[in-house]
Amino acid sequence: MSDQKTTTSTPAPGSQAGRVQPEAIALPATDRDRDAAGLTATARDALAHLPVSLAALGHRFARAGHELALVGGPVRDAFLGTAPHDLDCTTSARPDETEAILTAWGDACWDVGKEFGTIGARKGDVVVEVTTYRTEEYEVGSRKPVVAYGDTLEGDLTRRDFTVNAMALRLPELELVDPCGGFDDLAAGVLRTPVSAVQSFDDDPLRIMRAARFAAQLGFDVGMDVMDAMSEMAGRLEIVSVERVRAELERLLISPWPRRGLELLVHTGVCDVVLPELSALQETVDEHRRHKDVYEHTLTVLDQAMDLETGPDGPVPAPDLVLRLAAILHDIGKPATRRFLPDGTVTFHGHDHVGARMTKKRLTALRFDKQTVKDVSRLVELHLRFHGYADSGWSDSAVRRYVTDAGPLLERLHRLTRADVTTRNRRKARMLDAAYDDLERRIAELAAEEELAAIRPDLDGGQIMAELGLEPGPVVGEAYRFLMDLRMEKGPLGEELAREALRSWWAARD
């Protein structure tokens, strides 16, 4: 991964004005001095929003003879200037003792994973999860970590994934405990492991995915030993449940800098295990430059699709997992369909349909939910549909068909299609952009005349059967499809003209 960084302004991630660069969230030089408790001014401001009831909880644990500390992500985020919202804590108390204290403190208490030492509780609007100090590792061939409880906060922190997540604030006094140098790594924008990366990834192979996810989430670089260990131990991910791997991939993709995480996965070979179809796009690199670099093109499409996501009130609010998955998978059918013609040109005929099938297979294997699998596969299948519009234009029927086939995915398809234009030929890019502007204008005009998203024939199945004296069966379906095609071609006809057309079709069929 490159160490080079570029300074820019800092609009919200996903805005069209530009993207926040990684150094924009690193600690400013003027805020690296810490007070006696180890806090910076940024952290103090963020922690000022902590609920009073959390301090009261710290006092309860202390009176019971136990330690309690805010740990991990909330501490890291506080130093980055974000008020903690996930209140993850760690304690010297064993799970039964934790449960008793939380029950006395809160309005509700529940078992999050008592076998792993984690108890949850709520007091008012404040929700906490408290985990006993612990160590954990995977047995050879096992998918579940073995848990052993620890005795010290420092020991608990050293078993965590990365140093920036291995900081804690003792409660209630908010004293920083940072045995692994997490603060300095946070300021430097680098991911390191508290112990050797090989040992850390051997203890919990999912941390390999988490390295890529945090690179995407925080915009950080990874230490060279971390990168080397990712390559060396990628195969260990096979013992981790598919669901956990998928969850990390999702978090990576909806992060502010997913390209950064994906490049790390591909560079280290981890992607060969998790998403081999993306890695395989590197195989289409053509040293003779007869076509574009499909891998680099794909990452550019992802960046451009993100730029087209909208605010929370827009049609495709950022971050949109379905759009981003479609962006990185839209061309995965190209390696299987690449053909070199005698004249030296290259074709990828049918890569949209091949890619859609590959997408469905991979996302199903990763245990994505059925709707996500369906939506992403459909976008991959449709991403080339627009091509040719700029040359020949479409009839109203073709425009209606485009909208109907896209259905609820139309706004995402708009963005995927526009993002797919990565040509350096400015004239061609402007032509394609203008053509899509024209298509969207025509869609809007037709939508003003009729509700395209709910197009139906002028007669329903019952009316068709009554008109032709039919019983339910395949012939009714044929008649319905005839009227649907007629509706697409001619627009709304009204019932009387539709009945005449149906009778003519029926007479010709006989």
TrEMBL record:
Coiled coil regions in record: 429-456
Domain HD/PDEase intervals: 290-451
Cofactor: Mg(2+)
Residue span of region Disordered: 1-31
GO biological process: RNA repair; tRNA processing
Keyword annotations: ATP-binding, Coiled coil, Magnesium, Metal-binding, Nucleotide-binding, Nucleotidyltransferase, RNA repair, RNA-binding, Transferase, tRNA processing
Top-level EC class as recorded in UniProt: transferase
Any one GO molecular function term: CCA tRNA nucleotidyltransferase activity
EC identifiers of the protein: 2.7.7.72
Amino acid composition bias (Polar residues), ranges on this chain: 1-13
Alphabetized InterPro entries for the sequence: HD/PDEase_dom, HD_domain, HDIG_dom, NT_sf, PolA_pol_head_dom, PolyA_RNA-bd, tRNA_adenylyltransferase, tRNA_CCA-adding_enzyme
Protein name as it appears in the record: CCA tRNA nucleotidyltransferase
Organism (species): Actinomyces respiraculi
